[in-house]
Amino acid sequence: MSSATWRNVFTYNKYTQIAARALRQSLNESERVQAEKRGLTILRYQNWENGVGGPQTHLVPPVEKEIKQGVV
Amino acid sequence: MSVGSCDRLTLELIAADGLQVAMSALRLVSSAARRAPRSFATGRRGYAEAADKIKLSLVLPHQAIFTSTEVVQVNLPAATGDMGILANHVPTIEPLRAGVVEVLEPGNAAKKWFVSGGFATVHPNNMLTINAVEAAPLEDFSAEAVRANLQEAQRVAGGNGSEEDKMEARVEADVYEAIQHALSAR
């Protein structure tokens, strides 16, 4: 397999998540809607040092959704 | 009659004593052999009968498909090749590639799930645990979506993005190809 060298690029966790995401995107419409929710990761983390918290950063940057204006 | 052990015993007796003792020993050994069981007592490993079952736990983070359910055989897409697990399999840990896990329950027809990857562990007490992140029965897949996704992934993999993006696309393309293969072989 040409992707046997993924270990040079990312961790096993990332590899498993990529494969799981690929599977979720291949499901039928109704199952896919349910499955997409499982792929959602909303995690923010913050480093603390000397009692002071650093900036809170998202693990996965949130995608900005465009709000569609309805036709008036 | 187990001829091998008979011969050795009789040879020793003929060397030590006369023919008379050897004859009686032969009769003794042959009658003992008739009483003893024909097959080997321990370590026999033939094909598992349908009565021998293995306890399967097929679990995803969000759902437990099987929880210590007795099944006859499980076919796994291990990274080193396809394998079938029967009862009393030797303990092993196998990473799985994206592929079809087939479960043969006693009496029922075989059920298949496409698994994105994970690990299969056979424990020493005749239990098999399959941990996967995502799995779905083959009916839940849409061939059209797979084809479109595969084209997109191949486009990115052959393009000129970063090494990480291309590797990501290649991993995805492998999964899509595996789904296509599973759907066509259904």
Automatic annotation (TrEMBL), chain A:
Gene3D superfamilies, A to Z: ATP synthase, F1 complex, epsilon subunit superfamily, mitochondrial
Gene Ontology CC terms, in alphabetical order: mitochondrial inner membrane; proton-transporting ATP synthase complex
Domain of life: Eukaryota
SUPFAM superfamilies to which the protein is assigned, alphabetical: Epsilon subunit of mitochondrial F1F0-ATP synthase
Any Pfam family matching the protein: ATP-synt_Eps
GO molecular function, one term: proton-transporting ATP synthase activity, rotational mechanism
Entry similarity comment: Belongs to the eukaryotic ATPase epsilon family.
Protein name in the entry: Mitochondrial ATP synthase epsilon chain-domain-containing protein
Organism: Rhodofomes roseus
TrEMBL record, chain B:
PANTHER family named among the record's database cross-references: ATP SYNTHASE DELTA/EPSILON CHAIN (PTHR13822), ATP SYNTHASE SUBUNIT DELTA, MITOCHONDRIAL (PTHR13822:SF7)
Pfam short name (any one): ATP-synt_DE_N
Cellular compartments annotated: Mitochondrion inner membrane
Keyword Transit peptide: yes
Domain of life per record: Eukaryota
InterPro entries listed in its UniProt record: ATP_synth_F1_dsu/esu (IPR001469), ATP_synth_F1_dsu/esu_N (IPR020546), ATPsynth_dsu/esu_N (IPR036771)
Taxonomic classification: Eukaryota, Fungi, Dikarya, Basidiomycota, Agaricomycotina
Record's keyword terms, sorted: ATP synthesis, CF(1), Hydrogen ion transport, Ion transport, Membrane, Mitochondrion, Mitochondrion inner membrane, Transit peptide, Transport
Domain ATP synthase F1 complex delta/epsilon subunit N-terminal positions: 55-132
Protein name: ATP synthase subunit delta, mitochondrial
Family: Belongs to the ATPase epsilon chain family.
